[in-house]
Amino acid sequence: MAWTKRETYYAILGVTKESTNATIEAIYLKELEFWQRLEGAGILEAKEKILELTRAYLTLTNPIKRKEYDSQLDFDFVLLDGKAKDPEMEEAYDVYRLGHNKTYQEILVEFSKFREEMGDTLWVLKKTTIYMVLNLLLYSALILIHSLWITNTDEEKKWIDAASGWGSGIFLVLSAVGYLVFRFRFLKKELEKRKEKRS
Prior knowledge:
The protein is mostly helical. The chain has helices at residues 9-13, 21-40, 45-60, 63-73, 87-100, 104-148, 154-198.
């Protein structure tokens, strides 16, 4: 099976997302004139190119169609017709669509939800990682202070070792409790705020 890649309507017309309707129309008319001359000269590809240009022009100069098209272009791995930019993604899309009996729009909505959930998961992971690293640095500092504490008598060493052992245990317990509070109280509230901002 031959795999083909489709250009975006912007690429077909040679314009950007910021281009105005007037700019798009001017370029379309210029391109149309060129390809119509080639069609008149008997070039077979010209007719297909004219249809492609016209489809792009009609979509991008219609505000409603353009807005819908732009929202779908936010998904970098798919194009408007549901075709992916590479064979593996196209195959994955087809397998998912056929296996779940869903339309292209439904799949885009699901992907959007998945992307938001993945973003939230990564955000939580980043925050908890920072918490754990700070705890590790603090614990390392305590161990370093203990190792640098020089004593002369065996009695003092025993007392410091016992205090250090208890101190390490208490620190680890407090760190674990702190993590649970941080993760399931503080981050939970922050996560709810993130979701509220999106909706």
